[in-house]
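Materials and Methods. Structural model of Pyridoxal-phosphate dependent enzyme. The 325-residue sequence of Pyridoxal-phosphate dependent enzyme from Pikeienuella piscinae was retrieved and submitted for structure prediction as follows.
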Amino acid sequence: MEETPAPPAFADMVEAHERIRPHIHRTPILTSAYLNRLTGAEIFFKCENFQKGGAFKARGACNAVFGLSDAAAANGVITHSSGNHAGALAYAAERRGVPATVVMPRNAPEPKKAAVRDYGARIVECEPNATTREAVCAEVQRETGAEFVHPYNDARVIAGQATCARELIEQAEGLEIVTAPIGGGGLVSGTCLTLSALAPEVEIIAAEPKNADDAARSLRAGQIIADDAPRTIADGLKTPLKPLTWGFVKAHVSDILTATEDEIVAAMRLIWMRMKILIEPSSAVPLAAIIANPDRFSGKRVGVILTGGNVDLDRLPWLTTGVDA
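The predicted structure was written out as tokens:
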């Protein structure tokens, strides 16, 4: 299950876009004059919080599930995920009419668990660390014979996520920088795949919570450095890089900037207040990094991928104290 698959090619992204088109939204680009003045940049927000299932993950999951042969899909699909990939795989499986099982950490946000159940998938809970959830997932997979779809270390998933950057550069011309949150690296890898082929002049800068900065440390060290159970409010960014995503990151990402928990919450609140849209903490990390590093972005045309909007409305970070771990 942890073998390194061959990386996807640009043609795989093109094929993925056609395959998933009936099952996803072509999400809009929004702008904010206020945030442009605040940062000195011209920012184009790709709103994947409006995507099916509330996150970009629907792209990769649909490509993986609808790319299976009937024989491979017969036993269903399985994954481990803290949230958005879980819901996305459940959504894709329901669309295809196959069973889905998701191994989720017991402290995953309740709205994300509810979404998985609403799509008809089975949840198996585990302790909140990467080692345990991978082990539990492997055990359940052996019992069911289901097709494993890794949240990001999967060429099919990366090819699906790559379609987001394709739409972004079609919708916002002349971008100089594209930035997105990084956890396991599936979206950033897909962004690398697309931009290296269609717009190699565009700089790719990832953004990460300071409390879960293993990708930033990996880029500096030149090798994967993994945290098993980081503590950050950005629950979607707790996963470590894997060999497949690391290959894209080290080849194409120019920098990984970090943001503190307070900066993430402040950026999330700014987007809610100024843009009147709902995003989750992980989505706010790139804006937090832009605000914290004005010299890197001022005067530039910047594409920002808002990755999702699945937030627990009963536990908004500015209404609670401490870090949601």
